[in-house]
Each structure stands twice: as structure tokens, then as C-alpha cells.
Amino acid sequence: MPRKTANDDPLAPLTLAVGQEDLLLDRAVQQVVAAARAADADTDVRDLTSDQLQPGTLAELTSPSLFAERKVVVVRNAQDLSADSVKDVKAYLGAPVEEITLVLLHAGGAKGKGLLDAARKAGAREVACPKMTKPADRLAFVRSEFRALGRTATPEASQTLVDAIGSDLRELASAVTQLAADVEGNIDEAVVGRYYTGRAEASSFTVADRAVEGRTAEALEALRWSLSTGVAPVLITSALAQGVRAIGKLSSARGGRPADLARELGMPPWKIDRVRQQMRGWTPDGVATALRAVALADAGVKGGGDDPEYALEKAVVAIATAARARQGR
């Protein structure tokens, strides 16, 4: 969620959007443009990248107009402006033009800090647009999106949506909008599950399938992809546990048709066929070793260790190694 300074007038002479979250940066721009066009439908909007703002360009864009038209000038990646262009912007900040709103988008790091400091000193309206790297931040974002649409969702529904969609704020915002449009009344976990949960489960079970098949490199690649897209580590440990337990159940079961085994083990027939293919390299000792690895990973993910991702990687390697125990003899 963008955090704003006390000056929350989108038509202030200068808006400074600081951060690296693209969705929030775009929304900061959209808010200014919408306010300007509400005041004057003919507002002229100029949206420029840092390399398009050459020395002299800002003076040209902000020169007095014969018709005194309202104008919004957006400068993206302001931290990358050339030294001469920075001088132009700083000079403009000292004498802004009426009816013109300047919007600077700045990554917020050390690069271009002089311009950032100058804009703040000039009294800019500031909108913070930080990258949301923590699941708790994304959860708060989802809740705020529901509130902004005048809808309510249970805490479990919001968490399920974050677990299923991952870290992409645009996708999270789109999912909230779709749910708000499609669902009447309160939005609960069951509704979100029908729409989205399969995405995270599919990703998690891909990791588990590759691991129990002994395909270490592919399992690690799937794990890293899942984590990078925001799949909750607890979903992955759950999938790993289910995969190993299925191997153990089927290896100790009596032979028979898939339909009979499905009833005995509580698995669908198609899964019986898949697990039969996956269990070729497994031994009873391998299953025991893999289950211990999953238990350790589960403890690491739920707070028993400092690095959940490393705990998952260790478990994936241990399971894949156990899957090849019979071949190693």
C-alpha cells in the first residue's frame, strides 16, 4: 500500500513516488492524472523516461502556455537522470509553474540521492512505493485491496489468496478485483480455493514429484521457481510429505488392481499408477530417511531454523537421493 505524507493533495506542484514496486508507482501516477483530469478534462499528460528528459526539455514542457492549460509531467527512473537534467529539475523546484504538476518516480536508493533530497526539501508530496518482499506485507496489501473495493474477506481467504498467487502485486490486485466482481457477500477461504488454490498446489506438487523421482536438479529448479513466485514454504513441505508417504503406503500395500489399492490407501486410481512409476528406486530405509528430512524441513519452515529456503533445499536433495537408493546398491 502506498504511504503518503501529510500533504495528500494529488494536485500539489510536486509528487515524489519513491520505491521499486511497479504497481504502486503506476498507481501514484494514475492518481495524479485522474485528479488533474477531474479538474480539467483537457489536461496534457507527458510521461517521460529518464533518457527522454534531456537538458532543456523540462523548461520547454513547463514554459507558460498562451491558454494556461493544466499539465502533468511524469519523469520515471529519476535516479538515472543526467547531471545536467538534475540541475534543470532542481532549478524548477525552486520556482514551480502554476497549473503544472511534476511527478518524479525515484527508486529511493543512494543513486540520485541529491535529487531525492532536493525534492523533499522543496516540500514534495511523497508516496512510498516499497517492494513488498515479506508475506505479511502482501497479506496487508490484499486486505487493503478488498477494503478499497468496499468488500470484506475473511483472514483465511486473504492468506489463501497470497499463498496461491505469490508475490506479483499486479496479479494479486487482479485476483481481488475478479473475486469482488464475481462473488456476492462475504469472500471466504472456500471461494478463494475454488478460484486460485490449485495454482500453488500445482507448483508445490511439481517440486514433490521431481524429488520422489530422484531428479534432483529439476526438483531444485522447481523449488526455486515456486519460492520466487511467492508459494508458501509450508505448502511445499506438505506436498513433499504427501509424496513420500504415498511411496511408503504403496510399497507396503498388497498387490492388486489400481481401483482396489485406491480404496485401500485412500488415493485416486490415477495416483496409484503415478506412484508406482515413482517408487522404482525406493527402499524402506530410503522412505524412513526421506520422512526424517521432511520433518526437519517442516520444523525449519515453521520457525525452528533461520533459513526456510535452505531447509527446503536440504529436504529436496535428501528425498531425491533416497529415491535413488536402490540404484545405488
TrEMBL record:
The EC number(s) attached to this protein equal: 2.7.7.7
Gene Ontology cellular-component terms for this entry are:
DNA polymerase III complex
Arranged from A to Z, the UniProt key words for this protein are: DNA replication, DNA-binding, DNA-directed DNA polymerase, Nucleotidyltransferase, Transferase
The UniProt record lists the DNA polymerase III delta N-terminal domain at 18-107
Q: Which residues form the DNA polymerase III delta subunit-like C-terminal domain?
A: 202-317
**Gene3D superfamilies attached here?**
1.20.272.10, P-loop containing nucleotide triphosphate hydrolases
Catalytic reaction equation(s):
DNA(n) + a 2'-deoxyribonucleoside 5'-triphosphate = DNA(n+1) + diphosphate
Name this polypeptide is given: DNA polymerase III subunit delta
Q: Which organism is it from?
A: Streptomyces albidoflavus
